[in-house]
Amino acid sequence: MAGAYDDRDGMIWMDGKLVPWRDANVHILTHALHYASSVFEGERCYSGKVFKSREHSARLLESGRLLDMEIPYTVDQIEEAKAAVLEANGLRDAYLRAIAWRGAGEDMGVAARRNPVRLAVAAWEWGAYYGDAKWQGAKLDIAKWRRPSPDTIPTAAKAAGLYMICTMSKHAAEAKGCSDALFYDYRGYVAEATGANVFFVRDGEVHTPIPDAILNGITRQTVIAMLRDMGIVVHERHILPEELADFSECWLTGTAAEITPVGQIGEHHFQVGQMTRKVAESYEALVRA
Question: Where are the domains of the chain?
Fold first, then answer.
């Protein structure tokens, strides 16, 4: 499958039924288009099995709850929708996008309680999110924007509105020849990349930002558990920018990113070392088990 995302063959699940890909449309006065009232999940299917599928479906519902937007489907119903999409499109290795949003209805201001909450699931083939960086090591810029305080927006939700500064920061990074950008949070601590969590290695131990102002990624949680099962010490803590000079290895984690090594952040360089390769290999084995 290739070409613009609105002009492809295939089927998308929308509001309880499969519709042709090109017909999966919304009205211009959809609330989410104007006010970002939307939450989503990105998931990968390996050999016909969606990794951590139910966890993703549960998080979608929780994200909706955090945005005061009750999604009118259960985890089981969302699971059935994913299975239907994969079967209808003949996919066994794919990326899935489940998205819920406030649609068009009687309200067209900030308030939208009378508008329906809608749900769609799409799937397509998608290779390495960072391209060759997945093997060579990504180069990251430092974003000028900061991840916001949880007092300003529900940072635990995977909400569309939280990604606008990600788009802006990634565009700025790409203009400099980088693959992505690293955010600091509102306090100045190292936070995350535009769509992935970040891990560092020092003296055989792993350090990663505590998720008190960032999304606690499902891949992040999986990798921490995997490392601890290997007997590797993992420190979840606040990391200062000046510490970047002290780390020997770095990688990103995310459903789309999987395990992507990082070769450079700003002026700081990292090895694509033994720990990074071990984690990447172990994760690849786990998702295909």
Answer: 11-124, 133-287
